[in-house]
Design brief:
The structure is a single chain. Helix 8 (326-335) packs antiparallel against helix 9. By secondary structure, the protein is of the alpha/beta class. It folds into 2 domains: 5-56 and 364-385, Urease, subunit C, domain 1; 58-355, Metal-dependent hydrolases (TIM Barrel, Alpha-Beta Barrel). The chain is 25% helix and 26% strand. Strands 6, 9, 10, 11, 12, 13, 14, 15 and 16 form a 9-stranded parallel sheet that branches. Strands 3-2-1-4 form a 4-stranded mixed sheet, with no helix packed on it. The N and C termini lie close together (8 Å).
């Protein structure tokens, strides 16, 4: 963690001029000001010149399913040392915060995983080390539409209701940050309002919802979309569907997997342009347990997935996820010339924070910072932790 230092000549998202970032002795951003401003730079002895590079907070991954061979749905108390290793790995991949994502599995597995993460989050709060921090849990299921289940096992899917949620979560609802569900399955029209009243963000996904059903869900408080384009109806000029309704809603953020396989570059560009780039989109990795291990065949619940060039598929060819870290999406967007580096950085650092109500880079925030530059000759995006 940076402490008692001033960073100069830094480009920051949302600022037109190069900035100074004054960091206090506690490792908090004390002040941000233009290079010509008369701020408190003289108070610190150490100066770091960013040389016109971009500087950002670390990444926030709101959808990641495991790491280093461990699926979060299979976690037990004995895996706590491995969970620490995963957090360290993600830290070195530029991630500050993440939501361990529990995909559809048995109620027993979900409760056991929630129990382990409850204890782990308490441990992290008591530690003072540089590592990726668990923000809470993302439940991607089991309240999904069987018609858009993707790689989720249909024998564990449930119909959403307040009673089912209370039964599933028991005393763990306070650590659940996001729940992905198919709104058209809620015949009571109570679930979304109930979850929002408990401080849980509702994300629509693995759904057959049409535009009218999606609008109703957003009006009731749903504010996110899980992996835009994937596991939902396609955009159509007479039936915009769930995603079309999300794009025109300024209160909704869409998660996006920019790995080159989940969504083609043309549709990514369409989404970014229609959402004013990072205004309503954030990047996710959707990484599976083999992230950090390389290509190969790996167990996945009672099945297997094969990872080739970072893309994971079931034996029948169904796309299951990726093993690319979050910041690879930033690099891809720039290499594919879909948006400027500034916007691509914001999609992994600022936008996911806004989507879950966290502040962006500003005074009072921990100075966990990344430095970025783009070598236009080689079309290479480079980043490092400061």
């Amino acid at each position: 963690m940076l402490k008692d230092i001033t960073i100069i000549n830094a480009k920051l998202h949302g600022y037109k001029e190069k900035q100074k970032i004054l960091i206090d002795e506690e490792g908090l951003i004390e002040e941000i000001g233009s290079m010509g401003s008369n701020n408190s730079t003289q108070k610190v002895a150490k100066i770091y010149d960013a040389g016109g590079d971009w500087v950002s907070l670390g990444g926030v991954d709101l959808q990641i399913n495991g790491g280093l061979g461990l699926a979060f749905t299979e976690i037990e108390e004995k895996h706590l040392p491995q969970l620490h290793q995963i957090c360290e790995f993600l830290w070195h991949q530029g991630v500050d915060y993440f939501l361990p994502t529990l995909v559809t599995t048995s109620v027993e597995n979900i409760r056991r995983s929630l129990s382990v993460f409850e204890g782990f989050m308490k441990i992290q709060k008591s530690e003072d080390i540089e590592t990726a921090t668990v923000l809470g849990i993302h439940l991607e299921g089991p309240f999904l539409n069987p018609g858009k289940k993707g790689a989720h096992p249909d024998q564990y899917l449930l119909t959403p209701s307040v009673e089912a949620i209370e039964w599933l979560l028991e005393d763990y609802e306070y650590i659940v940050k996001v729940i992905t569900l198919a709104p058209e399955l809620d015949l009571t029209d109570e679930v979304i309002s109930y979850l929002c009243s408990r401080g849980i963000i509702v994300s629509l996904g693995h759904s057959q919802a049409n535009a009218q059903q999606a609008k109703k869900a957003f009006d009731m408080g749903a504010s996110m979309v899980t992996h835009a384009f994937n596991a939902m109806p396609s955009l159509h000029h007479r039936e915009p569907g769930l995603l079309g309704e999300a794009i025109i809603n300024s209160n909704v953020y869409c998660g996006l997997i920019a790995d080159g396989n989940h969504v083609c570059s043309t549709m990514i560009e369409l989404l970014l342009r229609s959402s004013l780039y990072e205004k309503g989109v954030f990047l996710v990795s959707d990484a599976l347990a083999p992230i950090g291990l390389g290509d190969g065949v790996y167990p996945w619940d009672n099945r297997q997935i094969e990872v080739k060039k970072g893309t994971a598929r079931l034996a029948n060819g169904t796309l299951a996820g990726t093993t690319f870290p979050l910041l690879v999406g930033v690099e891809n967007l720039v290499k594919w010339q879909l948006c400027p580096l500034e916007n691509a950085i914001a999609l992994a650092t600022e936008s996911p924070r806004k989507a879950v109500g966290l502040p962006g880079i500003s005074p009072g925030q921990p100075a966990s910072l990344l430095e970025w530059n783009w070598d236009q000759e080689t079309n290479q995006v480079n980043w490092r932790r400061l």
